[in-house]
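Quick one - inputs below.
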Amino acid sequence: MLQIENLRVAYLHDNRRSVAVRDVSFDVPTGATVGLVGESGSGKTTVALSVMRLIRPPIGDIEAGSVRLDGVDLLKLSNKAMRTTLHGDIGYIPQDPTAALDPLCKIGRHVDETLSPKIPKAERRALIISLLESLGVRNAATRLGSYPHEFSGGMCQRVAIATALARGPKLVIADEPTTALDVTTQLSILRLLDAQRRERNLSMLFVTHDLAVAQMLCQYVVVMYAGEVVEKGPTAEVIQRPRHPYTRALVGAIPQPTDKSRARLRAIPGQPPAPAQDRVGCPFAPRCPLAADACKVMPELKELDGVEVACWKAGVEEEPRVVAETR
Ligand SMILES: Nc1ncnc2c1ncn2[C@@H]1O[C@H](COP(=O)(O)OP(=O)(O)OP(=O)(O)O)[C@@H](O)[C@H]1O
Ligand code: SF4
Ligand SMILES: [Mg+2]
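Output:
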């Protein structure tokens, strides 16, 4: 189980700190997938990278909080212990597998490099073949010697998933792993990830800007806006009855099957605030149809029917201003 508490992360530039993630707390239970959703720039990747302790000076700084994996605070581990955890307990699936795989390294070797050299070679080979086959790479034995450019994007993503799973991690972090793929391949990769989650009882942190994808895959969702969690809870609850005006806007932006063109997406008018050191009041206020004087004070997360929401008017039913349509 992954437990993130009060995480605060800043990027550093020109002797200034801009806080990209503030006071973020949520759990990823064992055997469950949690979707981290929100618009571009909301801080999803920053949270994912912070769990792996990949944000450090001079780029950025994890200023506060804790990240516990099965009770152990990863932020307090020595560098050596953290490297061991990263290679053993955490698997990472990137957004663009074709860019993440070394073009000069054969497919089999990519997976082999994550396995312990103490395992006999023939045993490693058998393990890699069986893993790749279980992930939908047919005739894997004959394809171990292929290079990434000989594989399609979907096949490369299967190899990246095999690399993430080979050492039997407890936690898998996937950052937009299907965004670069066509819709059919996206669906089969999502099904595959879900099957692996069940089979291996994995905790999975799944980053996506697409609430429809989260709806398909995740048992829980955490909605981020401008670096903060604004709503979190069981996926069905959050999506069927969003309490925060921003979540309502995101849900309203999910393309419906009745839309004339699948390529047609609804946009939320306005822009989120830029990362800053300090913040006063609700960050969504300039875009919120319900904004009032009370919103000049920052709302905190409060429990409401099993869901946590940071909004003074949580649950007030009113159509948000999600009307602009763009191509
Ligand atoms: N290396 C960096 N240096 C400075 N600021 C950064 C850096 N990386 C991200 N940021 C800023 O931090 C904020 C959060 O970015 P992040 O990449 O975590 O968002 P995201 O939700 O993953 O967005 P996307 O959906 O576009 O991937 C943004 O305002 C972004 O501009
Ligand atoms: S606190 Fe106010 S401004 Fe913020 S989302 Fe709720 S109603 Fe809108
Ligand atoms: Mg990102």
